[in-house]
Amino acid sequence: MRQSYSLKCSKLVLGTGTRRIHVSTAFSAKAKVAMSRFEPGSSINYEKMHENINIVRRRLSRPLTLSEKIVYGHLDDPAGQEIDRGRTYLRLRPDRVAMQDATAQMAMLQFISSGLPTVAVPSTIHCDHLIEAQIGGVQDLQRAKDINEEVYNFLATAAAKYGVGFWKPGSGIIHQIILENYAYPGVMLIGTDSHTPNGGGLGSICIGVGGADAVDVMAGIPWELKCPKVIGVKLTGTLSGWTSPKDVILKVAGILTVKGGTGAIVEYHGPGVDSISCTGMATICNMGAEIGATTSIFPYNHRMKTYMEKTGRGEIATVADLFKDDLVPDKGCEYDQVIEINLSELKPHINGPFTPDLAHPVSDIGAIAKKSGWPLEVKVGLIGSCTNSSYEDMGRAASLAKQALDKGLKCKAQFTVTPGSEQIRATIERDGYAKILSDVGGIVLANACGPCIGQWDRKDVKKGEKNTIVTSFNRNFTARNDANPATHAFVTSPEIVTALAIAGTLDFDPETDYLTTPSGEKFKLEPPTGDELPSRDFDPGQDTYQHPPAEGGSVKVNVSPSSNRLQLLEPFDKWHGKDLENMRVLIKVKGKCTTDHISAAGPWLKFRGHLDNISNNLLIGAVNIENDAVNKIKNQLTGEYGGVPDVARYYKANGESWVVVGDENYGEGSSREHAALEPRHLGGRAIIVKSFARIHGRGNRVTNLKKQGLLPLTFADPKDYDKIRPDDKISITGLKSFAPGKPVTAVIKHSDGNQDSISLNHTFNETQIEWFQAGSALNRMKELQ
């Protein structure tokens, strides 16, 4: 039976007769194509993925979506795996891992704790998060190298010792580097950053995870993902004029909201796809993180092939062509939900403030802002970031800047430009775009995340001063970019940002409104234009990659006991085998609680490798329902009010375990596992909420919370949230019979002597229950060695 199946598989891929011989010869020549130019010893295995797809298709007896083909094509056991979208957990074998420097610290510290000698799959570290925007690219980069020398040295030596590629500071943003070098159609990559889905623009399944998930894959352990549903977005028509790829995801975010993609992969398809560049598709997939989606993806097409050829990966494109049927959805496949967007009718959008799903057509934003009392003056326009920093993005922005310069105008607002990578920086400098953007008033920042993640030493407004900024970023939560809660941040395309920065006001519609030259002449900006890719080859710029040595065992990795930036990890305590009784309510959170509220970024990034120090930011941005204050909760042992981390430490020191009670979509935002590590470190045992966001607690992948031995629980009846008071004690019972699908009970003891019992749901499977019992997934990994 096995022999006949193999023959059938071979015929399907290679054809028959003369055609079979031709394609077979072509594939033999390309069979050992490396996954990247940096890893000649690794090779793409489309044949294995194809075999897995056929096994699953035969079992399910139905057409498959593209998402299913790639996900199921990476199953550890395609013949035996139970597959039910939205219900079962899949055990997968991703092809590679990528980590940015802020999250790589904890990931590598956990990998060191595992005791393993080297990584099992190709892995990379990218230094992009620790560079603060202050003056300009060159100066800011040098300052970051000086300030973060200890961390960069740790990451470089840990990478060398354990066989991990290392991209030095200044190389660029992780997602742009992945698109340029590591993503390819059909690859499954996990990355320790929530915008890892950027790689979907190249037909990849790229998923943002926590460091503990990355450690699993680097250790060669099957990675668990809750079998995702698939949302189809059918694109018709053609992009033109002022409408850009960014407008597609801005529109989708307005439709689905920040939690509408939870538990699902968003799969774009339809005739409109071919009008979008490869990097434009990446933009759309990147911001899909803001709707809670597991990831997003586009089908393989000629735009992707051209991009791979231009970035030195023509051999991969040739092999992808042979397996194209596996890299597009089957005809007749079914989606769990379908959204249709006519690109010919889509208008430029701008979303915000304070949330990325508040969508407005640019033509309406002025009137809405006036009605809502939002500041109309645009203080700063910021283009670039991992979402919009391609050659095409920069070219289209430069075309507008040149029009303004030709008329004697410069930006009325401050204007910053963040290149996505060293390759983009060098190429736009060579081709004149950087000079045009500088001449119109732009400051070119370092090839790094910068203001997009709060790494911005902003000086033009005081904290608390109401103001408006417009960005081409992906996320605009309160205080995210500049730590000022009064900043009204709007996300839009680089083209619209540039136009608004030139005009200096939010109520400028470039499609209809006129600008005035110094001489008084009225003129209207022509729609932006820009080449998809440079006519010449990309200029790679400086070489910023460190290859791991062939043998890294002798490399020393030093972590000083006195360091305030790095700290070796101690194992979390095992479950004691009893119910969790009389736990304090540390805080009952009111309303929106993102990972920025739970574990702030910005200036706190420098402590990402030191668990005890970074735990001092635990929930300091969350609103306490008792007093509507942030970082002000009552210590039930002393009766005094204090900061959330301080009270948590006091409880822990006095042997008091505690829980957090939260509202809807708890943990929305980034993939940062510190939002799970910190509560565990400070004595937390459970997070009880109305619902979790995808990246933090539920849905389509193993949760960061579960990995650290915490209990993420949801109210069976959301109204039970109202039964819990800040001074209650909570016991979670039934843990001795803790089992998949079986709710647990919470007994709420009120200070007046009364009590309530409520039911709490969970999504633990048997493996995850073992993590809880062992104290963490890492503890369980060690038990099994």
UniProtKB/TrEMBL annotation:
Residues 68-504 form the Aconitase/3-isopropylmalate dehydratase large subunit alpha/beta/alpha domain. Residues 583-717 form the Aconitase A/isopropylmalate dehydratase small subunit swivel domain. PROSITE patterns: ACONITASE_1, ACONITASE_2. Signal peptide: none annotated. GO terms for cellular component: cytosol; mitochondrion. Keywords: 4Fe-4S, Iron, Iron-sulfur, Lyase, Metal-binding, Mitochondrion, Transit peptide, Tricarboxylic acid cycle. GO terms for biological process: tricarboxylic acid cycle. The keyword Endoplasmic reticulum does not apply. Residues 517-556 are annotated as: Disordered. Its main location: mitochondrion. The keyword Lipoprotein does not apply. Its EC number is 4.2.1.3. Its cofactor is [4Fe-4S] cluster. It catalyses: citrate = D-threo-isocitrate. Pathway: Carbohydrate metabolism; tricarboxylic acid cycle; isocitrate from oxaloacetate: step 2/2. It is found in: Mitochondrion. Binds 1 [4Fe-4S] cluster per subunit. GO terms for molecular function: 4 iron, 4 sulfur cluster binding; aconitate hydratase activity; metal ion binding. Catalyzes the isomerization of citrate to isocitrate via cis-aconitate. NCBIfam families: aconitase_mito (TIGR01340), PRK07229.1 (NF005558). Belongs to the aconitase/IPM isomerase family. This is Aconitate hydratase, mitochondrial. The gene is LOC127356333.
